[in-house]
Amino acid sequence: MLAARLYGAKDLRIEEMGEPEPGPGEVKIRVAYAGICGTDVHEYFDAPRATHVPNPLTGAVLPQTLGHEFAGTVVECGEGVDRVAPDDRVCVRPIRTCGGCARCTSGLDHLCARLAAIGVTSPGGGLAQYVVVPADAVHRLPDGLSLEQGALVEPMAVGLNAVERAGVRPGGSALVTGAGAVGMGALFALKAHDVEDVLVVEPSPSRRAAAERHGARVLDPTDPAVDVVAEVLRHTGGRGVDVAVECAGRPDALDTALRSVAARAPVVLVALYSGPIAIDTSVIRLAELALLGAEAYPDGIFERVLGHMADGHYPTDGWLDHIRLADTVAGLHDVRDGRRLKVLVDIPGGTATGSSRNS
Ligand SMILES: [Zn+2]
Ligand SMILES: [Zn+2]
Predict the structure, then answer these.
(1) Are 285 and 292 in contact (CB under 8 A)?
(2) pTM over 0.85
Protein backbone atom coordinates (compact mmCIF):
# COMPACT_ATOMS: atom_id res chain seq x y z
CA MET A 1 0.00 0.00 0.00
CA LEU A 2 0.97 3.65 -0.35
CA ALA A 3 1.66 5.75 2.75
CA ALA A 4 3.00 9.25 3.47
CA ARG A 5 5.82 8.63 5.94
CA LEU A 6 7.81 11.27 7.79
CA TYR A 7 11.53 10.48 8.07
CA GLY A 8 12.68 13.84 9.46
CA ALA A 9 12.39 17.60 8.90
CA LYS A 10 11.07 18.27 5.37
CA ASP A 11 11.51 14.60 4.49
CA LEU A 12 8.10 13.10 3.79
CA ARG A 13 8.07 10.17 1.41
CA ILE A 14 5.05 8.75 -0.38
CA GLU A 15 6.15 5.14 -0.56
CA GLU A 16 5.05 1.54 -0.75
CA MET A 17 4.95 -0.45 2.48
CA GLY A 18 3.27 -3.61 3.73
CA GLU A 19 -0.37 -3.47 4.79
CA PRO A 20 -0.92 -3.61 8.55
CA GLU A 21 -3.02 -6.51 9.83
CA PRO A 22 -5.41 -6.21 12.77
CA GLY A 23 -4.60 -8.03 16.00
CA PRO A 24 -7.14 -8.84 18.71
CA GLY A 25 -9.26 -5.78 19.53
CA GLU A 26 -8.10 -3.89 16.44
CA VAL A 27 -9.79 -2.69 13.28
CA LYS A 28 -8.32 -2.33 9.80
CA ILE A 29 -9.65 0.64 7.84
CA ARG A 30 -9.34 1.50 4.15
CA VAL A 31 -8.84 5.26 4.36
CA ALA A 32 -10.84 7.53 2.04
CA TYR A 33 -9.84 11.04 3.16
CA ALA A 34 -7.26 12.42 5.56
CA GLY A 35 -7.03 16.06 6.61
CA ILE A 36 -3.81 18.04 6.96
CA CYS A 37 -3.64 20.14 10.11
CA GLY A 38 -1.28 22.47 11.93
CA THR A 39 0.21 19.57 13.88
CA ASP A 40 1.24 17.88 10.62
CA VAL A 41 2.76 21.16 9.43
CA HIS A 42 4.81 21.50 12.63
CA GLU A 43 5.96 17.89 12.47
CA TYR A 44 6.93 18.18 8.81
CA PHE A 45 8.81 21.48 8.92
CA ASP A 46 10.32 21.16 12.41
CA ALA A 47 10.71 17.38 12.83
CA PRO A 48 11.60 15.71 14.99
CA ARG A 49 9.24 17.32 17.50
CA ALA A 50 6.68 14.95 18.99
CA THR A 51 8.51 12.19 17.13
CA HIS A 52 12.01 12.87 18.51
CA VAL A 53 12.27 9.77 20.72
CA PRO A 54 10.43 6.45 20.71
CA ASN A 55 7.06 7.36 22.22
CA PRO A 56 6.95 6.15 25.85
CA LEU A 57 3.33 5.03 25.53
CA THR A 58 3.23 3.52 22.04
CA GLY A 59 6.85 2.93 21.11
CA ALA A 60 6.36 4.84 17.84
CA VAL A 61 9.54 5.95 16.05
CA LEU A 62 10.38 7.63 12.76
CA PRO A 63 9.46 7.03 10.01
CA GLN A 64 5.96 7.98 11.18
CA THR A 65 2.96 7.71 8.86
CA LEU A 66 1.18 11.07 9.27
CA GLY A 67 -2.56 11.71 9.31
CA HIS A 68 -4.70 11.88 12.45
CA GLU A 69 -7.89 13.29 10.89
CA PHE A 70 -9.38 10.61 8.69
CA ALA A 71 -12.34 8.49 7.72
CA GLY A 72 -12.75 5.32 5.74
CA THR A 73 -14.36 1.91 5.50
CA VAL A 74 -13.74 -1.03 7.82
CA VAL A 75 -12.22 -3.92 5.87
CA GLU A 76 -11.33 -6.33 8.66
CA CYS A 77 -11.84 -6.72 12.40
CA GLY A 78 -9.51 -8.53 14.77
CA GLU A 79 -10.67 -11.04 17.33
CA GLY A 80 -13.16 -9.79 19.89
CA VAL A 81 -14.26 -6.66 18.02
CA ASP A 82 -18.02 -6.13 18.06
CA ARG A 83 -18.14 -2.33 18.01
CA VAL A 84 -17.96 -2.19 14.19
CA ALA A 85 -18.06 -4.63 11.26
CA PRO A 86 -16.61 -4.79 7.74
CA ASP A 87 -18.19 -2.24 5.35
CA ASP A 88 -19.00 0.16 8.20
CA ARG A 89 -17.95 3.71 7.38
CA VAL A 90 -16.03 5.15 10.31
CA CYS A 91 -13.96 8.01 11.68
CA VAL A 92 -11.33 7.72 14.40
CA ARG A 93 -10.65 9.56 17.66
CA PRO A 94 -6.87 9.33 17.33
CA ILE A 95 -5.67 9.96 20.86
CA ARG A 96 -4.08 7.14 22.85
CA THR A 97 -3.91 7.41 26.61
CA CYS A 98 -2.27 5.59 29.50
CA GLY A 99 -5.54 4.90 31.32
CA GLY A 100 -3.83 5.02 34.71
CA CYS A 101 -2.85 8.63 35.47
CA ALA A 102 -4.90 11.02 37.62
CA ARG A 103 -6.40 12.68 34.55
CA CYS A 104 -7.30 9.43 32.80
CA THR A 105 -8.98 8.06 35.90
CA SER A 106 -10.95 11.28 36.48
CA GLY A 107 -12.61 11.27 33.04
CA LEU A 108 -10.18 13.69 31.41
CA ASP A 109 -8.25 11.18 29.31
CA HIS A 110 -7.64 13.79 26.58
CA LEU A 111 -5.35 15.57 29.04
CA CYS A 112 -3.42 12.37 29.84
CA ALA A 113 0.12 13.01 31.01
CA ARG A 114 1.38 10.40 28.51
CA LEU A 115 -0.90 11.29 25.59
CA ALA A 116 -0.03 9.96 22.14
CA ALA A 117 -1.93 10.13 18.86
CA ILE A 118 -2.38 7.86 15.87
CA GLY A 119 -0.70 9.56 12.90
CA VAL A 120 1.61 11.63 15.12
CA THR A 121 3.16 9.52 17.89
CA SER A 122 1.56 6.11 17.47
CA PRO A 123 2.26 3.55 14.75
CA GLY A 124 0.15 4.03 11.63
CA GLY A 125 -1.65 7.06 10.31
CA GLY A 126 -4.45 8.17 8.04
CA LEU A 127 -2.22 9.31 5.17
CA ALA A 128 -2.07 5.72 3.96
CA GLN A 129 -4.32 3.37 2.05
CA TYR A 130 -4.84 1.26 5.18
CA VAL A 131 -4.48 1.83 8.89
CA VAL A 132 -5.04 -0.41 11.89
CA VAL A 133 -6.46 1.20 15.03
CA PRO A 134 -7.80 0.02 18.40
CA ALA A 135 -11.53 -0.65 18.16
CA ASP A 136 -12.34 1.75 20.99
CA ALA A 137 -11.05 4.64 18.84
CA VAL A 138 -13.52 3.97 16.02
CA HIS A 139 -16.85 5.76 15.56
CA ARG A 140 -19.41 4.62 13.00
CA LEU A 141 -20.70 7.37 10.69
CA PRO A 142 -24.48 7.73 10.76
CA ASP A 143 -26.27 7.11 7.44
CA GLY A 144 -26.40 10.29 5.43
CA LEU A 145 -22.98 11.55 6.48
CA SER A 146 -20.26 11.33 3.86
CA LEU A 147 -16.74 10.00 4.29
CA GLU A 148 -15.61 13.55 3.53
CA GLN A 149 -17.56 14.79 6.56
CA GLY A 150 -16.17 11.87 8.54
CA ALA A 151 -12.63 13.16 7.98
CA LEU A 152 -13.72 16.51 9.46
CA VAL A 153 -15.02 15.12 12.75
CA GLU A 154 -11.62 15.29 14.46
CA PRO A 155 -10.83 18.94 13.63
CA MET A 156 -14.46 19.95 14.29
CA ALA A 157 -14.27 18.28 17.70
CA VAL A 158 -11.53 20.77 18.66
CA GLY A 159 -13.80 23.75 17.97
CA LEU A 160 -16.77 22.09 19.67
CA ASN A 161 -14.78 21.42 22.83
CA ALA A 162 -13.75 25.09 22.93
CA VAL A 163 -17.39 26.18 22.62
CA GLU A 164 -18.55 23.66 25.22
CA ARG A 165 -15.85 24.96 27.59
CA ALA A 166 -17.32 28.44 27.23
CA GLY A 167 -20.80 27.31 28.24
CA VAL A 168 -22.72 29.30 25.61
CA ARG A 169 -26.43 30.04 25.73
CA PRO A 170 -28.90 30.21 22.81
CA GLY A 171 -29.51 33.63 21.33
CA GLY A 172 -26.26 35.09 22.64
CA SER A 173 -23.28 36.62 20.90
CA ALA A 174 -19.72 35.42 20.34
CA LEU A 175 -16.41 36.49 18.89
CA VAL A 176 -14.08 34.08 17.09
CA THR A 177 -10.54 35.27 16.37
CA GLY A 178 -9.02 33.41 13.42
CA ALA A 179 -10.99 31.57 10.72
CA GLY A 180 -8.74 28.59 10.06
CA ALA A 181 -10.15 25.10 10.45
CA VAL A 182 -10.48 25.42 14.25
CA GLY A 183 -12.12 28.84 13.91
CA MET A 184 -14.57 27.45 11.34
CA GLY A 185 -15.24 24.58 13.73
CA ALA A 186 -15.94 27.09 16.53
CA LEU A 187 -18.28 29.02 14.21
CA PHE A 188 -20.23 25.88 13.27
CA ALA A 189 -20.37 24.77 16.92
CA LEU A 190 -21.66 28.19 18.05
CA LYS A 191 -24.35 28.04 15.37
CA ALA A 192 -25.22 24.47 16.42
CA HIS A 193 -25.75 25.88 19.93
CA ASP A 194 -28.07 28.58 18.51
CA VAL A 195 -25.69 31.44 19.22
CA GLU A 196 -27.23 34.00 16.91
CA ASP A 197 -24.60 36.63 16.53
CA VAL A 198 -21.10 35.36 15.71
CA LEU A 199 -18.42 37.87 14.82
CA VAL A 200 -15.26 36.52 13.21
CA VAL A 201 -11.98 38.46 13.08
CA GLU A 202 -9.70 37.27 10.28
CA PRO A 203 -7.09 39.04 8.14
CA SER A 204 -7.28 36.71 5.10
CA PRO A 205 -9.97 37.77 2.58
CA SER A 206 -10.67 34.17 1.47
CA ARG A 207 -11.08 32.97 5.06
CA ARG A 208 -13.32 35.93 5.84
CA ALA A 209 -15.42 34.97 2.82
CA ALA A 210 -15.71 31.39 4.07
CA ALA A 211 -16.82 32.54 7.54
CA GLU A 212 -19.26 35.05 6.08
CA ARG A 213 -20.75 32.42 3.79
CA HIS A 214 -21.55 30.36 6.88
CA GLY A 215 -23.31 33.05 8.82
CA ALA A 216 -20.62 35.09 10.56
CA ARG A 217 -20.34 38.84 10.62
CA VAL A 218 -16.69 39.37 9.64
CA LEU A 219 -14.10 41.98 10.58
CA ASP A 220 -10.67 42.62 9.05
CA PRO A 221 -8.13 43.43 11.80
CA THR A 222 -5.65 44.76 9.20
CA ASP A 223 -8.05 47.37 7.84
CA PRO A 224 -6.83 50.73 9.22
CA ALA A 225 -10.42 52.01 9.07
CA VAL A 226 -11.64 49.26 11.44
CA ASP A 227 -11.15 49.29 15.21
CA VAL A 228 -12.25 45.72 15.96
CA VAL A 229 -12.87 46.16 19.70
CA ALA A 230 -14.79 49.41 19.18
CA GLU A 231 -16.82 47.71 16.45
CA VAL A 232 -17.69 44.73 18.67
CA LEU A 233 -18.70 47.01 21.54
CA ARG A 234 -20.79 49.19 19.24
CA HIS A 235 -22.47 46.08 17.84
CA THR A 236 -23.37 44.78 21.33
CA GLY A 237 -24.66 48.07 22.72
CA GLY A 238 -21.45 48.68 24.66
CA ARG A 239 -21.73 45.42 26.59
CA GLY A 240 -19.30 43.18 24.73
CA VAL A 241 -19.93 39.66 23.42
CA ASP A 242 -20.98 36.81 25.71
CA VAL A 243 -17.98 34.66 24.84
CA ALA A 244 -14.79 34.77 22.78
CA VAL A 245 -12.87 31.86 21.27
CA GLU A 246 -9.23 32.55 20.38
CA CYS A 247 -8.28 30.40 17.38
CA ALA A 248 -5.58 32.57 15.77
CA GLY A 249 -2.54 31.87 17.95
CA ARG A 250 -1.51 35.53 17.94
CA PRO A 251 -1.05 37.77 21.01
CA ASP A 252 -2.92 40.63 19.33
CA ALA A 253 -5.87 38.31 18.67
CA LEU A 254 -5.96 37.24 22.33
CA ASP A 255 -5.82 40.90 23.37
CA THR A 256 -8.74 41.66 21.04
CA ALA A 257 -10.71 38.73 22.49
CA LEU A 258 -10.09 39.88 26.09
CA ARG A 259 -11.18 43.45 25.32
CA SER A 260 -14.27 42.41 23.33
CA VAL A 261 -16.16 40.31 25.87
CA ALA A 262 -18.70 41.36 28.47
CA ALA A 263 -17.81 41.55 32.17
CA ARG A 264 -17.29 38.10 33.75
CA ALA A 265 -17.42 36.47 30.31
CA PRO A 266 -15.30 33.48 29.28
CA VAL A 267 -12.45 33.75 26.79
CA VAL A 268 -11.44 30.32 25.54
CA LEU A 269 -7.90 29.80 24.34
CA VAL A 270 -7.73 26.91 21.88
CA ALA A 271 -5.05 28.19 19.48
CA LEU A 272 -1.48 26.90 19.54
CA TYR A 273 1.17 29.47 20.42
CA SER A 274 4.79 28.86 19.51
CA GLY A 275 6.03 30.20 22.89
CA PRO A 276 5.23 32.44 25.87
CA ILE A 277 3.46 35.74 25.19
CA ALA A 278 2.83 38.97 27.11
CA ILE A 279 -0.76 39.92 27.95
CA ASP A 280 -2.22 42.81 29.91
CA THR A 281 -3.65 40.94 32.91
CA SER A 282 -5.44 44.05 34.18
CA VAL A 283 -7.98 43.54 31.38
CA ILE A 284 -8.82 40.16 32.93
CA ARG A 285 -8.92 41.49 36.50
CA LEU A 286 -10.92 44.66 35.86
CA ALA A 287 -13.70 42.82 34.00
CA GLU A 288 -13.45 39.65 36.13
CA LEU A 289 -12.97 37.58 33.00
CA ALA A 290 -12.51 33.82 32.87
CA LEU A 291 -9.60 32.77 30.67
CA LEU A 292 -10.10 29.08 29.86
CA GLY A 293 -7.96 26.58 27.99
CA ALA A 294 -9.36 24.03 25.56
CA GLU A 295 -7.31 21.08 24.36
CA ALA A 296 -8.24 18.40 21.83
CA TYR A 297 -11.49 16.62 22.64
CA PRO A 298 -12.74 14.84 25.73
CA ASP A 299 -14.35 11.42 25.61
CA GLY A 300 -17.87 11.61 24.19
CA ILE A 301 -17.37 14.62 21.96
CA PHE A 302 -17.10 12.69 18.68
CA GLU A 303 -20.67 11.49 19.28
CA ARG A 304 -21.81 15.10 19.74
CA VAL A 305 -20.00 16.30 16.58
CA LEU A 306 -21.61 13.46 14.63
CA GLY A 307 -25.01 14.42 16.06
CA HIS A 308 -24.60 18.07 15.06
CA MET A 309 -23.32 16.94 11.64
CA ALA A 310 -26.38 14.73 11.12
CA ASP A 311 -28.48 17.82 11.96
CA GLY A 312 -26.76 19.73 9.13
CA HIS A 313 -24.56 22.02 11.19
CA TYR A 314 -21.30 21.28 9.37
CA PRO A 315 -21.68 22.29 5.71
CA THR A 316 -18.64 21.50 3.56
CA ASP A 317 -19.00 24.18 0.89
CA GLY A 318 -16.58 27.06 0.51
CA TRP A 319 -13.79 26.04 2.88
CA LEU A 320 -12.39 22.66 1.77
CA ASP A 321 -9.79 21.77 -0.87
CA HIS A 322 -9.00 18.26 -2.03
CA ILE A 323 -5.53 17.18 -3.14
CA ARG A 324 -3.93 13.90 -4.25
CA LEU A 325 -1.80 11.83 -1.87
CA ALA A 326 1.16 12.44 -4.21
CA ASP A 327 0.76 16.19 -3.59
CA THR A 328 0.84 15.98 0.23
CA VAL A 329 4.07 18.00 0.56
CA ALA A 330 2.61 20.82 -1.54
CA GLY A 331 -0.48 20.64 0.67
CA LEU A 332 1.64 21.05 3.81
CA HIS A 333 3.21 24.19 2.31
CA ASP A 334 -0.23 25.55 1.35
CA VAL A 335 -1.58 25.07 4.88
CA ARG A 336 1.53 26.61 6.47
CA ASP A 337 1.41 29.62 4.17
CA GLY A 338 -2.33 30.13 4.59
CA ARG A 339 -3.07 29.60 0.90
CA ARG A 340 -5.72 27.03 1.74
CA LEU A 341 -8.05 26.87 4.72
CA LYS A 342 -8.62 23.13 5.06
CA VAL A 343 -6.98 20.47 2.89
CA LEU A 344 -8.29 16.92 2.57
CA VAL A 345 -6.04 14.35 0.91
CA ASP A 346 -7.88 11.88 -1.33
CA ILE A 347 -6.43 8.45 -0.62
CA PRO A 348 -6.17 6.25 -3.76
CA GLY A 349 -8.93 3.62 -3.84
CA GLY A 350 -10.39 4.94 -0.59
CA THR A 351 -13.91 5.59 -1.79
CA ALA A 352 -14.34 2.17 -3.42
CA THR A 353 -17.29 0.27 -1.96
CA GLY A 354 -17.16 -3.15 -0.36
CA SER A 355 -14.62 -4.56 2.03
CA SER A 356 -12.56 -6.52 -0.53
CA ARG A 357 -8.93 -5.57 -0.83
CA ASN A 358 -8.02 -3.28 -3.66
CA SER A 359 -4.41 -2.42 -3.03
ZN1 LIG B 1 -5.24 17.94 13.88
ZN1 LIG C 1 -3.22 8.95 31.42
Answers:
(1) no
(2) yes
